[in-house]
């Protein structure tokens, strides 16, 4: 048995047939991490002792109960901006280097009820600010397909860990594309739910009106299995809605007869890499073969999405990051008086990108500039939401590229922050509109780099993403695996 | 440059961040480039309203104000950089 070939579904079947134990799965995961993580640096913390103890306990439970959930005993990893009680949660920032989480995030609490095995915490861009993991205070993660390239970000550690077969799935977060763009760069499935579908409680806040927990996994079916556990209302996050969660497994079929798919022309304009374009177009052709009706459409205001995003997000960042004051938790740098403690702690603890965004956010929300920036950004947000709303009156799903390009080389976008911001051009509009998205691997370029196809659905229509994504994946039958 | 060095200084003060002179000059350039980009939003000046048809399920949610036993005050206090007993120690706020 090759651990790197396992999916949640196949590993769970092996567990049922007693061909493998939870402990053996955890040991295989640790072995793989030891083999490749020196090269990749996907993990900021490997929970060796904790995972083995947890897996032993799970095996005893399976023997006692004679049945288990699909996720029981499955090795997984968690992005280091999600709280797991008693474990580090650095958000890849020096300011939280020695912080230990005092409670479980709701998504972790829900997962723990079905006992998957947590293998450790993965790398990210500091607080989730970035598209490459190059903004991690603890060094970048490398792309398993090409070690000279970035894995994407900010959930780059989670994407690389799944792609390299270190774990069978990983949790990420997604504020502007942070789970979907790394999925595209690393050839795995990436998912962002509707805003309000899954709890943000215990996620280290970046942009509270945009953040959602995300999933990185090997198949669409596995993603649906994980999301079944994560979805739903949480009284600790009052933005989650009390809508019933459907049984997602019922929607996984191979035929898309009657499904209406829209292809927005704005997503195929200049700047899109021709090879990426070809792979997306091949995916769209597959959808037609599967019975879907494809039509061209327009989202006229989506061109304002990035501008709105890079106002709304920094404004929320400047407010959210004010809690790192050196008083209650995290780093505390000495000073003569209280104000100096604030200055010294924040200046020593935050990296260049958080500082840059705090500065933009403070500027855009300060007296005299609020109307010119924040108010305009909220207006653009309303127009973009309306664009999508109108589009979903005519189509069930929208299909687009995930990123204009494949994984780029280290250092390529570090000298110019704006060029890195433009990476979110296709993924950010979903967060601005609050709608869900799924990235499914579409193929490899001639150079052997993965390209992901983004599927977009209306609010709370995640089942349509899983349905179409599963059908596409089965029909493409890629079985991507990096040579590492 | 859509932002001056004086403005960089002012924002840094509001944000409680210190920068070297070289960092300030770099920030002036970077922030100006970002602000120039988002200036496209000025095109929206004529548009004053949009129609959001709110989700009928989007209602205000509240929960009962009850003590949650999941949270242990001792574990929270263990994360505090400086304390005396159960109190958080800070520099004097009023001079």
From TrEMBL, chain A:
Annotated EC: 6.3.5.7
EC class name: ligase
GO biological process, one term: translation
Protein name per its UniProtKB record: Glutamyl-tRNA(Gln) amidotransferase subunit A
Cleaved signal peptide residues: none
One Pfam family from the record: Amidase
Keyword NAD: no
Species of the source: Candidatus Doudnabacteria bacterium RIFCSPHIGHO2_01_FULL_45_18
From TrEMBL, chain B:
Example of a GO biological process term: translation
InterPro entries on file: Asp/Glu-ADT_sf_sub_c, GatC
Broad EC category: ligase
GO terms assigned for molecular function: asparaginyl-tRNA synthase (glutamine-hydrolyzing) activity; ATP binding; glutaminyl-tRNA synthase (glutamine-hydrolyzing) activity
Keywords for the protein's UniProt record, in alphabetical order: ATP-binding, Ligase, Nucleotide-binding, Protein biosynthesis
Entry function: Allows the formation of correctly charged Asn-tRNA(Asn) or Gln-tRNA(Gln) through the transamidation of misacylated Asp-tRNA(Asn) or Glu-tRNA(Gln) in organisms which lack either or both of asparaginyl-tRNA or glutaminyl-tRNA synthetases. The reaction takes place in the presence of glutamine and ATP through an activated phospho-Asp-tRNA(Asn) or phospho-Glu-tRNA(Gln).
Subunit record text: Heterotrimer of A, B and C subunits.
Family the entry assigns: Belongs to the GatC family.
NCBIfam families: gatC (TIGR00135)
Full protein name: Aspartyl/glutamyl-tRNA(Asn/Gln) amidotransferase subunit C
Species of origin: Candidatus Doudnabacteria bacterium RIFCSPHIGHO2_01_FULL_45_18
């Amino acid at each position: 048995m090759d651990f790197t070939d396992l999916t949640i579904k196949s590993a769970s079947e092996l567990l049922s047939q007693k061909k493998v134990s939870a402990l053996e799965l955890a040991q295989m995961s640790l072995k793989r991490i030891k083999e490749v993580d020196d090269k990749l640096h996907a993990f900021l913390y490997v929970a060796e002792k904790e995972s083995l103890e947890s897996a032993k306990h799970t095996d005893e439970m399976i023997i006692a109960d004679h049945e288990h959930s699909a996720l029981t005993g499955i090795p997984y990893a968690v992005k280091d901006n999600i709280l797991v009680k008693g474990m580090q949660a650095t958000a890849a920032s020096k300011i939280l280097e020695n912080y230990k989480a005092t409670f479980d995030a709701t998504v972790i609490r829900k997962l723990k009820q079905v006992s998957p095995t947590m293998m450790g915490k993965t790398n990210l861009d500091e607080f989730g600010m970035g598209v490459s993991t190059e903004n991690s205070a603890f060094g970048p993660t490398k792309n398993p397909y090409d070690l000279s390239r970035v894995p994407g970000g900010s959930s780059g550690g989670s994407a690389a860990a799944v792609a390299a077969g270190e774990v069978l799935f990983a949790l990420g977060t997604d504020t502007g594309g942070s789970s979907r763009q790394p999925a595209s760069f690393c050839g795995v499935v990436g998912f962002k739910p509707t805003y309000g579908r899954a709890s943000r409680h215990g996620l280290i806040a970046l942009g509270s009106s945009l953040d959602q927990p995300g999933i990185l996994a090997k198949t669409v079916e596995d993603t649906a299995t994980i999301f079944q556990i994560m979805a739903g209302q949480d009284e600790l996050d009052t933005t989650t809605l009390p809508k019933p969660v459907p049984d997602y497994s019922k929607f996984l079929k191979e035929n898309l007869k009657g499904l209406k798919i829209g292809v927005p022309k704005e997503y195929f304009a200049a700047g899109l890499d021709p090879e990426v374009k070809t792979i997306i177009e091949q995916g769209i052709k597959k959808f037609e073969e599967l019975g879907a009706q494809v039509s061209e459409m327009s989202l006229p205001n989506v061109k304002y999405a990035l501008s709105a995003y890079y106002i709304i997000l920094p404004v929320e960042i400047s407010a959210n990051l004010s809690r790192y004051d050196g008083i209650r938790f995290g780093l505390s740098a000495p000073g003569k008086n209280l104000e100096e403690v604030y200055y010294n702690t924040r200046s020593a603890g935050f990296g260049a990108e958080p500082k840059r965004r705090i500065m933009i956010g403070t500027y855009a929300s300060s007296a005299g500039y609020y109307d010119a920036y924040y108010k305009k950004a909220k207006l653009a947000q309303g127009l973009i939401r309306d664009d999508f709303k109108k589009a979903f009156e005519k189509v069930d799903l929208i299909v687009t590229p995930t990123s204009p390009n494949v994984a780029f080389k280290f250092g390529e976008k570090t000298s110019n922050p704006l060029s890195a911001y433009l990476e979110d051009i296709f993924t950010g509009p979903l967060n601005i509109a609050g709608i869900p998205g799924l990235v499914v691997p579409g193929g490899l370029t001639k150079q052997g780099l993965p390209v992901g196809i983004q599927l977009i659905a209306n609010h709370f229509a995640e089942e349509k993403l899983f349905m179409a994504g599963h059908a596409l994946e089965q029909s493409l039958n890629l079985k991507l695996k990096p040579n590492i | 440059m859509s932002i001056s060095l004086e403005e960089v200084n002012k924002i840094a003060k509001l944000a409680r961040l210190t920068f070297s002179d070289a960092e300030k000059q770099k920030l002036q350039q970077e922030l100006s480039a970002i602000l120039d980009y988002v200036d496209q939003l000025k095109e929206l000046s004529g548009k004053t309203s949009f129609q959001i048809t709110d989700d009928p399920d989007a209602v205000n949610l509240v929960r009962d104000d009850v003590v949650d036993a999941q949270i242990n005050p001792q574990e929270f206090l263990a994360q505090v950089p400086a304390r005396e007993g159960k109190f958080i120690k800070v520099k004097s706020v009023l001079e």
